[in-house]
Design brief:
Elements: H1 2-17, E1 21-30, E2 35-43, E3 56-60, H2 69-72, H3 76-85, E4 93-97, H4 114-129, E5 139-144, H5 146-157, E6 164-168, H6 175-180, H7 183-190, H8 208-213, H9 215-221, H10 224-227, E7 231-237, H11 243-255, E8 261-265, H12 271-291
Parallel strand pairs: 3-4, 3-5, 5-6, 6-7, 7-8
Antiparallel strand pairs: 1-2, 2-4
Helix pairs in contact: 3-12, 9-11
C-alpha cells in the first residue's frame, strides 16, 4: 500500500511539474519609449524540458486593460490547455503585451512611438528570449476590441511578419459612425493618438492619423495580393456596438476578393463572448499554421 501511495504521489508530482506555465507582468526596457513594457506569457506543457521551437501568438488586450486581462478574465490558460490537450491546437507560446491604451499605434507628434516599439523592439526581444519559430507562417496575432483592431491592422500592415490574425469584437467603425460619435467618446479614445484631433467634428475627424488607424482604409488601399498573404479571422456579437464596422470589414474584404472567416454570434461586448472567441480564434490560427 505504501508503495502504491508513493507511486501515485510521484506521478501526481510529475503531472504537476508538467503543467503549462503562465508568467505575469514581466518587463522589457524600451529605449524608444524610455520606459518598461509589461507583458505576460503562456508557455505550453513541456516547454521547459524541450529543445523544440514553438509557434507564437501575440494576444492583445482591449482599451483600459493590461497584460493580465486575458489570464484573469479570459481564462487563457484553461482554454489553451484544453485545446492543446485535445489536439485541436498546436502547442504554442502566447505573449500578451500591455497595450497601454495607445491603440497599438505611434502617437502622431512623435512623443510615444508605441507601434515602432512593438515591431522593432518587443518582437525581437520576445523571439530571442523564448524558443519560437522565426517565420511568418508560425507567427500569429489576435486581440479583443482595441486589440482586435490592433491585431488586424498590424497583421495586414506588416504582412511580411504575420501569417495569421484573429480579431474579436474589433474596434472598427465606418467613417459615418466616427463623424457622428460623441465628443467625449471620440476625444478620450483617438485623442491618445493625436492631440490635434481633440475637439474636432464631422469630416475634420478623418485625418491622416485616423486613416492610419482605420482597418477599413487599410483594406481598401493596400494591394490585394499582399493582403492575401495573411489569413484572417474575425467575429463580433450581434448586440455589440461595433457590429456595423465589423460587418463593413466583411463586405470590403469580400468585394476585394480577400479570403477570410467572419462570424456573427449571439453576444455583446463582454468577456463571456471573448472566451468563446479565443477558443475559435486559436483553432483558426493553429489550423492555418498547419495547413498554410
Amino acid at each position: 500500500m505504501k508503495r502504491l501511495i508513493f507511486t501515485f504521489t510521484l506521478i501526481s508530482l510529475l503531472n504537476i511539474n508538467a503543467q503549462s506555465k503562465v508568467l505575469e507582468s514581466l518587463s522589457m526596457t524600451s529605449k524608444l519609449l524610455n520606459t518598461e513594457i509589461n507583458y505576460s506569457v503562456y508557455l505550453p506543457n513541456g516547454f521547459d524540458d524541450s529543445k523544440n521551437t514553438y509557434p507564437i501568438v501575440y494576444l492583445l488586450n482591449g482599451f483600459t486593460g493590461d497584460e493580465t486581462d486575458w489570464v484573469k478574465h479570459g481564462e487563457l490558460q484553461t482554454v489553451a490547455d484544453q485545446l492543446i490537450e485535445n489536439g485541436k491546437v498546436l502547442p504554442m507560446v502566447i505573449v500578451m503585451p500591455d497595450g497601454d491604451d495607445r491603440l497599438y499605434m505611434n502617437k502622431d507628434d512623435n512623443t510615444y512611438p508605441y507601434e515602432d516599439m512593438l515591431i522593432t523592439e518587443f518582437l525581437p526581444f520576445i523571439e530571442n528570449k523564448y524558443r519560437v519559430k522565426d517565420h511568418k507562417k508560425y507567427r500569429g496575432i489576435a486581440g479583443l476590441s482595441m486589440g482586435g483592431a490592433g491585431s488586424l491592422r498590424l497583421a495586414l500592415k506588416y504582412h511580411e511578419l504575420f501569417g495569421v490574425c484573429a480579431g474579436f469584437s474589433a474596434g472598427i467603425s465606418t467613417e459615418e459612425e466616427i463623424m457622428s460619435e460623441s465628443s467625449d467618446s471620440f476625444d478620450s479614445y483617438f485623442g491618445r493618438l493625436s492631440p490635434s484631433i481633440i475637439g474636432s467634428k464631422g469630416k475634420d475627424r478623418i485625418t491622416e492619423t485616423y486613416k492610419d488607424y482605420d482597418v477599413l482604409h487599410l483594406v481598401n488601399t493596400k494591394a490585394a495580393k499582399l493582403l492575401k498573404t495573411v489569413k484572417i479571422y474575425f467575429d463580433c456579437g450581434d448586440d455589440d456596438f461595433l457590429t456595423v464596422g465589423n460587418a463593413q470589414l466583411h463586405i470590403d474584404l469580400t468585394k476585394k476578393e480577400i479570403p477570410h472567416e467572419y462570424r456573427v454570434r449571439d453576444g455583446k461586448h463582454t468577456w463571456e463572448f471573448w472566451k468563446d472567441s479565443l477558443h475559435n480564434g486559436l483553432i483558426f490560427i493553429s489550423n492555418t499554421m498547419l495547413n498554410n
